[in-house]
UniProtKB/TrEMBL annotation:
It comes from Lentilactobacillus kisonensis F0435. GO terms for molecular function: DNA binding. Residues 20-119 form the HTH hxlR-type domain. SUPFAM superfamilies: Winged helix' DNA-binding domain. The lineage of its organism: Bacteria, Bacillati, Bacillota, Bacilli, Lactobacillales. Keywords: DNA-binding, Transcription, Transcription regulation. The keyword DNA-binding applies. This is Putative HTH-type transcriptional activator HxlR. PANTHER family: HTH-TYPE TRANSCRIPTIONAL ACTIVATOR HXLR, TRANSCRIPTIONAL REGULATOR, MARR FAMILY. It comes from the Bacteria.
Amino acid sequence: MTDIIRKDVKDRLENGDYSCSKELTLSMFSGKWKIVVLFHLGTDGPYRFNELMRLLPRVTHKVLTNQLREMVEDGLISREVITDSRVKVTYRITDRGRSLMPILNQMYEWGEKRIKELQITLQINVNPVEEIKGDELR
């Protein structure tokens, strides 16, 4: 689904049938986990694939793989493969992705404020970073 939205926006851009810059920005975020992944890569530093899987316990392997691939394709994150005794794949935020951090931070702050206004007790579906990375926080 998220790929359909991205392709539609890209096609309309290429055909000159484009009317709103906000639509392009939102298409970069289309996908349930992209905002969360970008936020953590931007605030915590690089993550390996399995660390992201542990960080987001409700995401499926397929969905995370697809959304990471889309973000690499859009230039928001980079994917580095290191071949040692075993293959290690690390994801990092790029300068283009980092340029979205002020937007993500404002969304976070707005959400925190709205949650307090609504007096909602959240059931977070993201594991604490400390459990994922331990002393390795970068």
